[in-house]
Amino acid sequence: MAGNHLIKLAISFLCCLSVFAGSIFGQDGVPAPSDQATDKKPAAAVAEGDGEALRKAAQNPIASLISFPLQNNTNFGIEPGSRTQDVLNIQPVIPIGVSTNWNMIVRWIIPIVWQPLPSEAPAPEVGKYGFGDMQPSFFFSPKKSGKLIWGAGPVIQLPTATDDYLGQGKLGVGPTFLALTQPGHWTIGALANNVWSVAGSGGRPDVNQLLLQYFLNYNLSKGWYLGTQPILTANWEATNGGRWVVPFGGGIGRVMRLGMQPIHAQLGFYGNAVHPTNASAWSMRVMFVLLFPKKR
């Protein structure tokens, strides 16, 4: 299992390098907003590969854009022993036109987890590696949203973990909602969901958990941007100060092309100002996304 963990860390390192690869051997990034014409309709501009339209679509989780993100979260400082958890989220995003005026955006999160065993378990220096609980979301979003882009629908938690340490053992459902706006150089928005368990192992704790991610990006020239996208969580079943995880931090990203392939790469660091006892104190997030604009 240690070998698998090293492979995941190697993937994280390679993804970090991809953020800067465009500066070395890729084509130039997308231009800044002031560098190009804005007379194209957004959907047509994305289809034609318009730089700024593509960058804004890449930063919009419910854009009419097929994408294949790989997001790796390395969580450091788990006690005792300052151990490390690693979660690679494979999360394809597929927009589906369901009517003349509405899209359904399917976002399916498949986690692959390296989980150190808790301190009370035998041999706490080792861990478990495998699939976690998958979580598909279905956002219904108007095709013409105006300045405020939004989507809402159900989120489902599937008990697909390959080991009890890697998942919660419960089928869960709940609502999810996302809203954002993209004035000028900015992308500003938030995503929230809450999941309640409705079935599953009677020997496992009930699930009632909130996820809130706000994002604030400022776009620079040549496809670069600075941003913060912390993920706050609350376990409403927890007590004694173990309910919230509240990170702060940020990082850098770029939307660019490697050859003919549009990609979106991001690197960020977050410190957990609030977290349960012995949980991770800080984390590194690396994301690499393949983008597939629709051809006209």
Explain the overall architecture:
The protein has a 15-stranded antiparallel β-sheet that branches. It has helices spanning 2-24, 42-47, 51-58, and strands spanning 66-78, 83-90, 93-97, 102-116, 127-131, 135-142, 149-157, 170-181, 186-200, 208-219, 224-228, 231-235, 244-258, 261-274, 282-292. The N and C termini lie far apart (46 Å). It is mainly β and 296 residues long. It has a single domain, classed as Porin (Beta Barrel), CATH 2.40.160. It has 3 helices and 15 strands. 12% of the residues lie in helices and 51% in strands.
List the helices and strands and how they pair.
Elements: H1 2-24, H2 42-47, H3 51-58, E1 66-78, E2 83-90, E3 93-97, E4 102-116, E5 127-131, E6 135-142, E7 149-157, E8 170-181, E9 186-200, E10 208-219, E11 224-228, E12 231-235, E13 244-258, E14 261-274, E15 282-292
Antiparallel strand pairs: 1-2, 1-15, 2-4, 3-4, 4-5, 4-6, 6-7, 7-8, 8-9, 9-10, 10-11, 10-12, 11-13, 12-13, 13-14, 14-15
Describe the structure concisely for a colleague.
By secondary structure, this protein is mainly beta. It has helices spanning 2-24, 42-47, 51-58; strands spanning 66-78, 83-90, 93-97, 102-116, 127-131, 135-142, 149-157, 170-181, 186-200, 208-219, 224-228, 231-235, 244-258, 261-274, 282-292.
- Report the sheet-strand fraction: over 45%
**What's the mean pLDDT score?**
86
Helix and strand string, N-terminal first? HHHEEEEEEEEEEEEEEE
Beta strands, count? 15
CATH superfamily: monomeric porin ompg
CATH architecture: Beta Barrel
Instruction: Kindly name the structural category.
Output: mainly beta
Number of domains: 1
Share of helix, binned: 10-25%
Question: What is the CATH C-level name?
Answer: Mainly Beta
Q: What is the alpha-carbon Rg in Å?
A: 20 Å
Distance between the termini: 46 Å
